[in-house]
Structure formats: structure tokens, C-alpha cells
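Subgroup meeting minutes
Present: P.N., E.W., G.H.
Scribe: E.W.

1. P.N. recapped why we're keeping a running log of single-chain structure predictions: easier to compare across weeks, and new members can see raw inputs and outputs side by side.
2. G.H. added today's entry (134 aa).
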Amino acid sequence: MPWQPGQRITANGLNSPTPTTITSGVTAASGWQVTLQTLDIVSGLRVANVTLNRTGADITNPGGTSGNITPDLEVCTVAADWRPRDSLYVSCSTGIGDGSMRIQPDGSCQWLTWIPGASVSSGSSMRWTWTFAR
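Output recorded in log:
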């Protein structure tokens, strides 16, 4: 829980902050469904976890031979509480394949890279986590 105006700052409060968990704020793009969304906030530090299920058609070899997805593919958007001040680049995975994701200050989460030759099947779960301070 964030410090409140007038609240006394104590060693106990600093050592044992009470976390806040937000479980809404992620909106999936077409062909994806949100299956997990948690944003834990402790003393200004934010840890976000997102899992999307692929509900659309299989995505065959999205990174081609280089691994670069062109153009970048927006898979979801996140609400204001979830947004970093600057773009963050993190790993993402289905458990079979892996790549990278960019979380932007405007809330866009864009899939950037994927291992060459690998596909993402309908029913696969794409997972990623990011941590930031505000």
C-alpha cells in the first residue's frame, strides 16, 4: 500500500509493507484471451504478470528465419497502473517457444521476436512478467 499523507514512517512499515494486488486492467487484442493478470504493488515497486491464451488461428513461424516479427504485433493493452514510464523489453514464453515483448508507456504490449521456425498454436498460453518502480 502506498504511503498516505501524514502517515508516520516507521521501521516496521518499511520492513513489512502491505502489498496491493490489482487483478484487472489488461485488454487482449483480437485472437487472444486474458487468463491471468496480476499487478502487485509494494512500496512503489510494481510486479506485473500476464498470461494470454491464443484463441485465434495458429501463428506459423512469426519470426521467420531471423526471429524478428515485422511489424511488431500488439497482443494486448494495459491500463495506467500497469504502465512503465519508459518502454520495457522482457522475455515471453509459451513453454515451447520463447521471444521478447515490449511494454510501452501508452499501454501497448507488442510481441517483437520469436525463435526462428517455431509457431504458436491456438490454445497456447503466452506468458511474461515485468517489474518497474513509479
